[in-house]
From TrEMBL:
Pfam families: Molybdop_Fe4S4. One of its GO terms (molecular function) is 4 iron, 4 sulfur cluster binding. Transmembrane segments: none annotated. GO terms for biological process: anaerobic respiration. This is Dehydrogenase. The keyword 4Fe-4S applies. It comes from Streptomyces chromofuscus. Residues 44-100 form the 4Fe-4S Mo/W bis-MGD-type domain. Keywords: 4Fe-4S, Iron, Iron-sulfur, Metal-binding, Oxidoreductase. Belongs to the prokaryotic molybdopterin-containing oxidoreductase family.
Length: 188
């Protein structure tokens, strides 16, 4: 490498002699950093989403390539988070691609020590049967001669990431089932 080539590759020289006197652009880039591409450049599409961790509702850009989530970043268009994510939100890619993510329904029988896989239809039937049985067992037509028509056998605790429409539907469902203990984590 000659002296001239070495001087031309020096960032301070490029900054002083080039079109970037403040050193914020091309003058600050080395050869290897100039060849870098963003990890989201190969994404097929970007899907707007909301972070699932808390009630704040930070916006996320979910980058998808070949129908797989490849990256999740803060959404700069979000009026709530303006492109920023907390540490939990920044790690939300692991919710979809992490090795600890389960993709099957797991069930542990009462007094059991092992988890067993169930198909989704069986699991949904078990949940429906248990809701009906708990409602039947805890049903109260009246309390102290006052008509109540309620059950204390089931309750609902909603998550903080449910939106107003989802909370509305959950409230309607559990009220129709006769439940009176309906709460949301975001309010507790």
């Amino acid at each position: 490498m000659g002296v001239r080539t070495w001087i031309d590759s020096w960032p301070v020289y490029r900054q002083l002699k080039g079109t970037d006197p403040l050193g914020r652009g091309a003058a600050a880039k080395s050869g290897p950093s100039a060849r870098l591409t963003p990890r989201v450049a190969s994404a097929d599409r970007v899907v707007k989403s909301i972070c699932p961790y808390c009630a704040v509702g930070c916006g996320q850009n979910v980058y998808v390539q070949d129908e797989r989530v490849t990256q999740i970043e803060g959404d700069p268009d979000s009026p709530i988070s303006r492109g920023r994510l907390c540490p939990k939100g920044s790690a939300s890619l692991q919710l979809t691609t992490g090795s600890a993510r389960e993709h099957h329904v797991l069930h542990r029988r009462p007094h059991g020590t092992r988890w067993e896989r169930l198909d989704l239809d069986t699991a949904m039937d078990m949940i429906a049967d248990r809701v009906v049985e708990a409602r039947r067992a805890g049903w109260q037509w009246e309390v102290d001669e006052t008509r109540t028509r309620r059950t204390l056998g089931i309750a609902s605790l909603g998550g903080a990431t449910l939106d107003n429409e989802e909370n509305y539907l959950i409230k309607k469902l559990f009220t129709a089932l006769g439940a009176v203990q309906i709460e949301n984590q975001a309010r507790v």
